[in-house]
Specification:
By secondary structure, the chain is α/β, with parallel strands linked by helices. The chain has a single domain, classed as Alpha-Beta Barrel (TIM Barrel), CATH 3.20.20. Helix content is about 30%, strand content about 15%. The protein contains eleven helices and twelve strands. Strands 7-8-9-6-5-4-3-2-1-10-11-12 form a twelve-stranded mixed β-sheet. The model has no long low-confidence stretch (mean pLDDT about 90). The chain binds S-adenosylmethionine (SAM) and iron/sulfur cluster (SF4).
């Protein structure tokens, strides 16, 4: 099938990430500061508005939707969104509906997600060590995440672990995390820290190019590059000893924007065509203004025409964040 949304650089746009809240039950040091200014409630889209907007993107040609946050599983009524969007899976209009979560509440919701057609879940997990987990997340309980992973497996969901590669932390945890993923037969991806917003842990202090991390992992396992993709920005390597797969999301050291197929919708209805730029299209005001719903498709197409070629984070972080916006506003 030929792509129906194409940007000004000829890239097919097939993937929408929808943030359903900017709130979270954790405070990861690379993502948030202690005190965060969340969006005022009246600006946040209702579940019905989120479903309406997401469905408009599907009608325009989006084939994959990822629900994210903040922490999507803390959003009241979020299951109704999955219920509503599952009709696009049934009709064949959507290939995939998936979710990114910190896993804390996953044990409670894994089966329900599977029942609504979710097949893949990304779980963020930076360490298996309870003390370091609590330190990175400001008090989170790693056992809850592990119970969430078990429940997701029991529900038949395929899981990818995502770990942010923070210098000073990940060196101690990468091997254990990779081994854990191999034992359970899960994919795992490492992500370079990106300089977004005023957070607790300055990106410049904790930036580790993933080439260095790969060398560390390669002391224990033999890694072979592969062209495989799951439709996201990761470059994958196969572990020859186990047949498992490791992804490397090199936002800074090896910019992946050339093949970008993504759009991002915030919980307040702002459409961002690039994680690394401030410009957005306000879709909330379109759907909340009487008689303007017909303008929605035009606004989406116009925004896509202006999608920037690339983020401008540079190839290594400086102390000042590249953008004021936190990662939790758009969910990665
Ligand atoms: N709360 C959910 C979670 O943690 O999976 C979803 C939202 S979270 C913002 C999405 C992903 O962004 C997580 O994998 C998280 O580790 C990652 N992330 C957050 N801040 C980041 C940063 N500054 N640089 C790189 N990745 C970051
Ligand atoms: Fe919350 Fe996810 Fe950000 Fe951690 S990375 S603070 S879990 S939104």
């Amino acid at each position: 099938m030929s792509p129906r949304l194409v940007d000004g650089f000829g890239r097919a746009i097939t993937y929408l990430r929808v943030s359903v809240t900017d709130r979270c039950n954790l405070r990861c040091n690379y993502c948030m500061a202690g005190e965060v200014q969340f969006s005022p409630r009246q600006d946040v889209l209702s579940i019905e508005e989120l479903e309406f907007l997401t469905s408009a993107f599907v009608a325009c040609g989006i084939r994959k939707v990822r629900i994210t946050g903040g922490e999507p599983l803390v959003r009241k009524g979020f299951m109704h969104l999955f219920e509503g969007l599952s009709r696009h899976l049934k009709s064949g209009a959507l290939d995939e509906l998936c979710v990114t979560t910190n896993g804390i509440l996953l044990a409670k919701y894994a089966q329900g997600l599977a029942d609504y057609g979710v097949r893949r879940v990304n779980v963020s997990l930076d360490t298996l060590d309870p003390v370091r987990f609590a330190e990175i997340t400001s008090g989170g309980d790693v056992e809850a995440v592990l119970r969430g992973i078990e429940a997701a497996r029991a529900a038949g969901l395929s899981i990818k672990l995502n770990a942010v590669a923070q210098k000073g932390y990940i060196e101690r945890d990468a091997e254990t995390l990779v081994q854990f993923a191999q034992d359970l037969g899960l994919d795992i991806s490492f992500i370079e820290t990106m300089p977004l917003g005023e957070v607790k842990s300055n990106c410049a202090d904790h930036y580790l190019p993933l080439g260095d991390l790969r060398s560390l992992i390669a002391r224990r396992w033999t890694l072979a590059d592969t062209e495989e993709t799951t439709g996201g920005p990761a470059h994958y390597a196969r572990i020859e000893e186990t047949g498992g797969r490791i992804g490397f999301i090199t936002a800074l050291s090896n910019c992946f924007c050339e093949g970008c197929n993504r759009l991002r919708l915030s919980a307040t209805g702002a459409l961002y065509t690039c994680l690394g730029h401030d410009e957005f299209t306000d879709l909330r005001s379109i759907i909340r203004q009487e008689g303007r719903a017909a303008d929605l498709e035009d606004a989406i197409r116009l925004a896509i025409t202006a999608k920037p070629r690339s983020h401008e984070f540079g190839s290594a972080p400086v102390r000042e964040p590249a953008l004021k916006r936190l990662m939790s506003a758009l969910g990665g």
